[in-house]
Amino acid sequence: MTPLRLLLVEDRQSDAELLLEHVRGAAFEVQARTVETEADYLAALDSAPDLILSDYRLPQFDGLRALELRNARGLDIPFILVSVTMGEDLAVEAIRCGADDYLLKDRLSRLGTAVTQALARKRAQETLRERDRQLSTMISNLPGLVYRCRNDTDYTTEFISEGVAELTGHPAEEFRQLIRHYGKTIHADDQERVWTEIQAALLEHKRFELTYRIITATGAEKWVWEKGHGIYDTSGQVQALEGFIGDFTERKQAEQARREAERRFSDMLDNVRLISLMFDRDARICYCNEHFLQLTGWVKAEVIDADWFSLFVPPDNVDAKQMFAELLANSPSAWHYESEILTRAGERRLIRWNNTLLRSPSGTVIGAASIGEDTTEHTKIEREIQSTRNFLASIFDNIPSSVFVKDAQDLKFVRAN
Known about the structure:
Number of helices: 14
Largest sheet: 5 strands, parallel
Strand content: 25-35%
Strand order of the largest sheet: 2-1-3-4-5
């Protein structure tokens, strides 16, 4: 049995009992409160009933007035009207005013179903409102704006989220009331390109994705990133555009800063016998010089945008990722160190690294730059020299007679066995 708090507006005891019998017959455990006057009805509304079942005409009250009072309080309690007689005009008026259903008292067999359906509609409406609330919250927290607009050069607004105010500096209401059009905020030099790229995508029923500049309310220039798609009718004609637009300025500045750093890096180090590399924050290679390619045996197209750890770091170097993280955190321990890299042929080369951070104009860390010296051969020679020294020292120490070495200048003893 489903619990049901029922507010019954009825002045006849026999009719009230008949109505309750039909409601209980639909598997409801009814807790009913019966009222006959407007004052009692208003007091009963405070108890938040699940459903209102009202006779159309009472001596001091009527069903349409009860419906009007419910609406005046802003309540969404399901409301069913019953009457001995009810013309079509009255039924239409009741539904127009917000009644969920109406029944004749001599045809109450449908009452249980009507109650069930009215309660189900309310649950569906509550679910829909909750989804709308969640969607509204999600949209309001997005770092940009969500839109639906016409496919014209003004991009005339049909829907736009509050994020447009933060992005453009103009209130969202100005776009909604068509006082302002988003198309007019696009930089004059970019307007034609934006229109052309969007139309080309729509022609092939594809999504569009592009970056361009807008001019804000203060006259500042911002870069934005937009991704959207067309809404088509059954004949394939574009009815609207929907999508998302976000602030791309910092990323664009970071990209420009990185390119400028690459250019300077390239000018300085393309022709020296030192490794020069640049990485983004994910350790993907953004730049490498010719010496690095010659040393490792790779070609530039295979290296750019490759993952540094996957392609060049030996599997047994378990500290490499931690060292890179420390570098991004500007830890001094990561500025200078030695580590091995792998060539295309699988050969290990020992590199002495000097590292520094790359920053955007705003100071945000966007990656790292590294200069490396291949010390493989030098280290090998040093090891051979040390091995030879150790060998000679062993012979010297084991000669079965006294041997000593003096400095030729001051005749001081340098070594003796």
